């Protein structure tokens, strides 16, 4: 069933997985994984996905999968820096949008995010924002989220979920992030808004679980870890069957391994 982020967050036990989707095979695998675990799932179309395939196709795909599922499925736009794109995503059937103003000065981030919140909430759509800046492995450096900024952002925007920077980094290919639990607690002390950690792949599984059970981190975005499984299973399938040329036959190799990986990620976060 289709759901918004605001609907699934309060009903969760532990935290939920926001899984980065790049095509049909992974999207279908993640929904099957959620159904097998009996857990809600957040399907996320990020900037790369949107550059590859038009937004309305993503919206229709996510909604079709959601409508065929017995568990709640959130159709989420990940990392949009464009209010017009958030509006287009809502028109395309997304039930949740992340407006990413994290590169803007705080006051401008608050102003723009609040504008998205007003527009999205009027249509029953959830909004995630980011305060501080979650950096990129071998790329832009992080700017940690301060409690004062987190409070101002939560109060000033009315977001349903707030992505924070507490040692997490996007695109790490091994789990080596060092999460500052004291920083999480300091942010929790000043706001009730559910927290999101991007860069989930870099956070060791046992740390993800501790955060899910002991803090108000409510959503972990996971992408790289799943893409690594995609690449490995695709290569193994091609090596085992060098005669294959049919796309459907080749891609059939990735579905079960991605489903298994997604199940493990979701189960580990569940209370
Ligand atoms: P990883 O690819 O590092 O898991 O991060 C995903 C993410 O945060 C998407 O928004």
UniProtKB/TrEMBL annotation:
- Protein name per its UniProtKB record: Class II fructose-bisphosphate aldolase
Give me the residues that bind Zn(2+) 2, please: 100, 130
Q: Which GO terms describe its biological process?
A: reductive pentose-phosphate cycle
Q: Binding of Zn(2+) 1: at which residues? A: 79, 170, 198
Q: Does the keyword Manganese apply?
A: no
User: Entry cofactor note text?
Assistant: Binds 2 Zn(2+) ions per subunit. One is catalytic and the other provides a structural contribution.
- At the top level, the lineage of the source is Bacteria
A single GO molecular function, which one? aldehyde-lyase activity
* Catalytic site positions: 78 (proton donor)
Q: Which UniProt keywords apply?
A: Calvin cycle, Metal-binding, Zinc
Q: Which cofactor does it need?
A: Zn(2+)
Q: Which InterPro entries match?
A: Aldolase_TIM, Class_II_FBP_aldolase, FBA_II
Pathway given in the UniProt record: Carbohydrate biosynthesis; Calvin cycle
């Amino acid at each position: 069933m289709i759901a918004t982020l605001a609907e699934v967050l309060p009903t969760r036990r532990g935290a939920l997985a926001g899984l980065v989707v790049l095509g049909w095979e992974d999207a279908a695998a993640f929904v099957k994984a959620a159904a097998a675990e009996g857990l809600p799932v957040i399907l996320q179309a990020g900037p790369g996905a949107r550059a590859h395939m038009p937004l309305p196709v993503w919206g229709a795909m996510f909604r079709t999968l959601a409508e065929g599922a017995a568990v709640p499925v959130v159709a989420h736009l990940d990392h949009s820096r464009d209010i017009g794109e958030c509006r287009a995503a809502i028109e395309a059937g997304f039930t949740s949008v992340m407006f990413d103003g994290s590169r803007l000065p705080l006051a401008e981030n608050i102003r723009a995010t609040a504008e998205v919140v007003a527009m999205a909430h009027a249509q029953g759509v959830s909004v995630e924002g980011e305060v501080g800046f979650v950096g990129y492995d071998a790329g832009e450096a992080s700017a940690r989220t301060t409690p004062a900024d987190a409070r101002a952002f939560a109060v000033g925007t009315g977001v349903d979920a707030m992505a924070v920077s507490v040692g997490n980094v996007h695109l790490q290919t091994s789990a080596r992030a060092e999460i500052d639990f004291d920083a999480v607690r300091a942010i929790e002390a000043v706001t009730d808004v559910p927290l999101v950690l991007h860069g989930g792949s870099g956070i060791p599984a046992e740390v993800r679980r501790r955060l899910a059970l002991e803090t108000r981190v409510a959503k972990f975005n996971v992408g790289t870890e799943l893409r690594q499984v995609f690449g490995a299973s695709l290569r193994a399938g091609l090596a085992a069957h060098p005669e294959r040329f049919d796309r459907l036959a080749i891609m059939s190799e990735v579905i079960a391994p991605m489903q298994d990986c997604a199940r493990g990620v979701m189960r580990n976060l569940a209370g």
